[in-house]
Amino acid sequence: MIRYFASRLLWAVPTLFVIITAAFFLIRMAPGGPFDEEQALPPAIKHNLEAAYGMDQPIWVQYSRYLKGVMHGDFGPSFKYKDFTVSELIGQGFPVSLTLGAIATVLALGLGVPIGTYAALHQNTARDYLVMVLAVAGITIPAFVVLPFLALVFGIYLKWLPVAGWEPGSARYYVLPVIALTLPPLAFIARLTRSSMIEVLGSPYIRTAKAKGVPLTAILWRHALRPALIPVAGFLAPAVAAIMTGSLVVESISGLPGIGRYLVQGALNRDYTLVMGMVVVYSAVLIAMGLLVDLLYAWLDPRIRFQS
After folding, report:
1. Would the pTM of this model clear 0.70, i.e. be above it?
2. Most exposed: 24, 90, 102, 263, by fewest CB within 10 Å?
3. For residue range 199-208, what is the model confidence (pLDDT) as tens digits?
4. What 3-state DSSP class applies to 148?
């Protein structure tokens, strides 16, 4: 296992290198630039700005210089946030995004698995059908539709929670964004758990345990839960990716100062360094989640052996 873990860490480096390279050149292929305004700048001023940020250099020189900076943890200055470097913006926004995503992931797992198990234990009953109907609705309705609806009901009509904005240290501003981000992965996890649990409960060793009179609770905890969670573990990386991409819109709508909002604004403003910094952070998190999922596979099923 240690060898496998080390090999995956080594493979993460070239993977991140490919992502950085692709993002660096793709963003520069998009029309416009960081210094393009509604009112065109005089050529001399625009040339001075490009020279100040090194954009007058050949593209390969800019690329090599950016790679050297990333290797030293320097993502460069932001083109639009004049008084901040990209690293400072990430340092400000990442804790908010991390808290938002972590709470949504924990809630999706903590609620989705029991709900799916409940539906599996009541297969083909009204309770099972109700859970699955709600799960399908949760999957099909995106977060950017759920959040305005929740804000309308709980923020404007009932006035229980703030509609948008941010106050450091106040959990009230997290509630609606967390719910909006949690619902789609929660619904998917519930469906996965239900189908997997039904299959596991029909296995010969589960039938043998039932024939021996083992209580249902003990069957679930000791024999059924871990193998039933293997498909759920495989969904964790896509779930985190969905939560992270959903946070881009959710943070922008709710006004949370996370890195998702910075990424959206950076893309709109052609803030190359800001977008690149966010891409590196998001990619690193997803690569780490992929490694965590593989290690979780081995814990859930001891028969799984990885070859490094």
Report:
1. yes
2. 102
3. 888 888 888 8
4. helix
